[in-house]
Design brief:
Family: Belongs to the 3-hydroxyacyl-CoA dehydrogenase family.
Number of domains: 2
CATH topology of the largest domain: Rossmann fold
Protein name: 3-hydroxyacyl-CoA dehydrogenase family protein
Number of helices: 11
Low-confidence stretches: none
Bound molecules: acetoacetyl-coenzyme A
CATH architecture of the largest domain: 3-Layer(aba) Sandwich
Radius of gyration: 19 Å
Strand content: 5-15%
Organism: Nocardioides glacieisoli
CATH superfamily of the largest domain: NAD(P)-binding Rossmann-like Domain
Length: about 290
Amino acid sequence: MTDTATREFSTVGVIGLGTMGAGIAEVFARNGYSVIGVEVNDGGVERGRQHLEHSTGRAVKREKMTEDQQSELLGRITLTTDMTALSAADLVVEAVVESLAIKKSIFASLDGIVRDDAILATNTSSLSVTEISTANSKPGRVIGVHFFNPAPVQNLVEIIRTVVTEPAVLEQVQGVLRDLGKNPVVCGDKAGFIANTLLFGYLNHAVAMYEGKYASREDIDAAMRFGCGYPMGPLALLDLIGLDTAYEILDTMYKQGRDRLHAPAPILKQYVTAGLLGRKSGRGFYTYE
Ligand code: CAA
């Protein structure tokens, strides 16, 4: 599938089929790759299946895809709870919750499963790729690939190279991402990478503005949409990202840089504790059907 001279990639594993993982699985399957999607239990598999059916169903409704193309795409994705299925993967993309302990345990267990030449990627938004890589016996084959939400739509993917990532691994991952029609950018391993470092200070500021009752949520969002041409206002975007994810990203960036800009606005934590996680839970700054 990819035109990198050194290596043919045809099978991709995706671990974790939440919003991001399911979106990533869809992107690969859309581009002809065989995808093995792994979840921790049957409930996770079912949730992943629903994500995939909903997203591709939306494309069918908009006449961007026929029903036959949708079934072909879904037919390229195998969903399982069995990690050993990843032995067939050329590339594994981990997209589970932002927990260093969980990610490290996954990268450790991949050791006994994947082929020696497989590339292991993490979709972490803010954790240290270097730390995650140390859990595996081949840290040189570990790299960050950070997709943006919604993954089937946003063209940017940040590639995070650590000080030990093999240059050939970086080159091959760039080739695969270009093959998906994505626009990869490369950066070093620092919390937030390029886009979130720039984006989250702004999002956090919008939450503080809302929390301080300076303006309504609608007016804060309208100001940025109609005044600055952003496709979504900051509070609607936070609901799309997930308030739990947003909180974790801000908290990690704050702990690393101690920049007040990233000290999570208190109401964000309160929403997360109350289970208001944004679109995925049906309510965040806004309420969803
Ligand atoms: N899954 C798949 N496709 C989707 C989708 C989803 N969740 N949401 C929208 N789309 C597709 C639609 O099907 C449509 O495709 P076509 O043009 O082919 O028909 C296209 O996207 C446009 O959708 P809509 O017309 O429904 O809505 P829109 O024009 O308002 O676009 C949006 C929706 C793409 C989400 C747009 O508002 C946008 O780009 N918002 C900003 C998103 C953003 O900033 N993302 C980055 C978040 S930060 C991040 O992800 C990093 C992190 O670590 C948290």
